[in-house]
Amino acid sequence: MFWAGCIYGCKNDGERFGFFCHAALEFLQQSGFHPDIIHCHDWSSAPVAWLFKDHYMHYGLSKSRVVFTIHNLEFGANNIGKAMAYSDKATTVSPTYSREISGNPLVASHLHKFHGILNGIDPDIWDPYNDTYIPVPYTSDNVVEGKRAAKDALQQRLGLKKADLPLVGIITRLTHQKGIHLIKHAIWRALERNGQVVLLGSAPDPRIQNEFVNLANHLHSSHCDRARLCLTYDEPLSHLIYAGADFILVPSIFEPCGLTQLTAMRYGSIAVVRKTGGLVDTVFDVDHDKEKAKAQGLEPNGFSFDGADPAGVDYALNRAISAWYDGRDWFNSLCKKVMEQDWSWNKPALDYLELYHSARK
Ligand code: ADP
Question: Which CATH number fits domain 140-339: 3.40.50.2000, 2.40.50.140, 3.40.50.1260, 2.30.30.30?
Fold first, then answer.
């Protein structure tokens, strides 16, 4: 009751999380559990970095080292800047994003201890062979059959025409970061190419939510059999879209890592992305990134574009949809290939272990 009372007494998220950070450190101190590494993520646990150094390090927790990870520099800049200064090592969630933000004043003076390590997905949660939300379990061996059944179920559930058409899925927060104007453009482009579009997304900003409600209504009258916008948060539906789509579009303006494209690949969907942040490190264009993929021991796995204007989206989406129409065998083999790439924590975990070891030296 006392704890709950304190938390409810907090005026804002900053105070609430500050209180939690104190509580976590107090727990470590009093329980006698002395970790080698205290790893804090983003602004909400950032206070641990300075509370630890200022108040706890000298009282029994001296062997612990603090690692701080930036997940998105847009949120909580003050906390992030302070934690960057106080931590022994700092990371962000992809090598490319680490370079993109290296000039930011919050980061620039800490480059000597700053690293980019990719996020991973949990392959047990995102597993088309063990997924109660999709109709036919599949691996890369029966990806065509599995995805056909999932597309069928998706079309049925959303009242779309049951037809063998290229289906573009979009699963996203609807915010500026995610490239809203590019998303809108892509919807129309996909429809022009006689494709189907399913968007699952919600906007924290009511004005943006409203814009999409209007677009949803418009599409409902103009393209009711080929477009559906689901303007809500619905994890079960996201599984069915990952499985039933041919393409997952991620046209972010910036993207620290991005999980959507990784999950898409796990379900044999082809990522169509803007070249930014973690999207650069995980999606290798079939026409342009053969060498880059090879350097990672991989084969190209998607379509990407530069720039932030509609012409860029067109360039990637047109090639993707044409590939679907023109060479289904090739396209199916690409789906199989992307499913076999490992975007789990296997490799990032090794990178973190190495970082933890170096933090302790
Ligand atoms: P961010 O954390 O910036 O939103 P990420 O790509 O890192 O972007 O992670 C987004 C995650 O949230 C993905 O797993 C995606 O499937 C999920 N997601 C986003 N919007 C929705 C939604 N409306 N319904 C269900 N899942 C969603």
Answer: 3.40.50.2000
